[in-house]
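Can you make up a polypeptide sequence alongside its tokenized fold?
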Amino acid sequence: MSFSSSSMAVARIIFMVVIAVLVMVLHGSTETLGTADLPDLVLDYYKQTCPSVEQIVRRNVEIAVFKDPRMAASLLRLHFHDCFVMGCEASVLLESQGSMVSEKQAGPNLNSLRGFEVIDEIKYVLEEACPYTVSCADILALAARDAVLLRGGPGWNVLLGRRDTLKASFSGANQYLPAPNSSLETLIANFQDQGLDVADLVALSGSHTIGRAKCLSFRQRVYDVSTEHDYDRYKRHTTFRRILRSICPESGRDNEFAPLDFMTPARFDNHYYLNILEGEGLLESDNVLAAEDDEGEIRRQVWAFASNQKLFFESFVKSVVKMGNINVLTGNEGEIRRNCRFVNS
């Protein structure tokens, strides 16, 4: 079969149009990672000054998670709570000092956030190996990645070069960290405040595939009759509610724990999304992703992640990298703390 010159010309034009579209798509997806705006963060930032940094962090995270499997979720949560208040600059690690009130004392963190001793140990080893070199903010980012990997989740390249802030924001921690009973509208607003979109919200909510929550965090979801109707209009999940009520009575036992994912509580997988499609997310802020999505866009994304773990992992990686780039300090901004709990004297 032969082609006329005009047919070949048309084919070339179509080919060029397709390539142009692909380039635009790829360019757009790169921008969503947020790395184009942050040239100071690089993969091999410590290649010359502290080449063993990733091995040291990973080894210490392995030890911590082996001793306490729940620590994986705690380290991931530390990174999240750091980035959502002023940016990923290790403000969450600072103790109260002088007129500065620690973010640890804020409502979403008090008697809840943990893993500080693990970060302290990593910092101590790094100061022995590479004094005054690796920031606490970078340690948080690396530890979160390694924690996810150790629970069967995806890995990703962590861009490095963050520096540590000189201040904490108690008020910011109370204002910007999502509450466990947040509405969908509130969650979307919380994420938009950080430059994150709805797709990031759904992907990062998948962090709740590991970890546990206190009774105080999910009691309202269990006993609020008005929301119970929304989640269980056909009364198919009475067994699940009965289990939760046995753990968390209407009063007392505030500090009793329940797993965020009853199916595979210690494994980072996509079961979280299966749970919320069934109305069996532990927290009210989990279930609203499906229950309050009137337009169906979020529900479709939840369905996609529930049916395709690989897709969830890929989306999670994009969003957690994007989150890890929020308002970072680089260059001569901030400092490299010697002790992650205190600014340098």
About this structure: The longest strand covers residues 212-214.
